[in-house]
Amino acid sequence: LLDDNRQLFITETGVTVTVHPRFMLFATQNPPGLYGGRKLLPRAFRNRFVELHFDEIPSSELETILH
């Protein structure tokens, strides 16, 4: 879904799914080193995303984001 083809092949069904043109994926990750068991993601995978780093978000701003 994240490469230039924007498709996913489901091996169990033999079906290829093409994403909607306006498809977007939002992902979060706890930073490696601050939490147990976290490791850096491979660079090839990280290159498929725009990385934004935030400190703790005040609850008033978080409420605005979620609504």
From TrEMBL:
<keyword id="KW-0547">Nucleotide-binding</keyword>
<keyword id="KW-0067">ATP-binding</keyword>
<protein>
    <recommendedName>
        <fullName>Midasin</fullName>
    </recommendedName>
</protein>
<dbReference type="GO" id="GO:0005634">
    <property type="term" value="C:nucleus"/>
</dbReference>
<dbReference type="GO" id="GO:0000055">
    <property type="term" value="P:ribosomal large subunit export from nucleus"/>
</dbReference>
<dbReference type="GO" id="GO:0000027">
    <property type="term" value="P:ribosomal large subunit assembly"/>
</dbReference>
<dbReference type="GO" id="GO:0030687">
    <property type="term" value="C:preribosome, large subunit precursor"/>
</dbReference>
<dbReference type="GO" id="GO:0005524">
    <property type="term" value="F:ATP binding"/>
</dbReference>
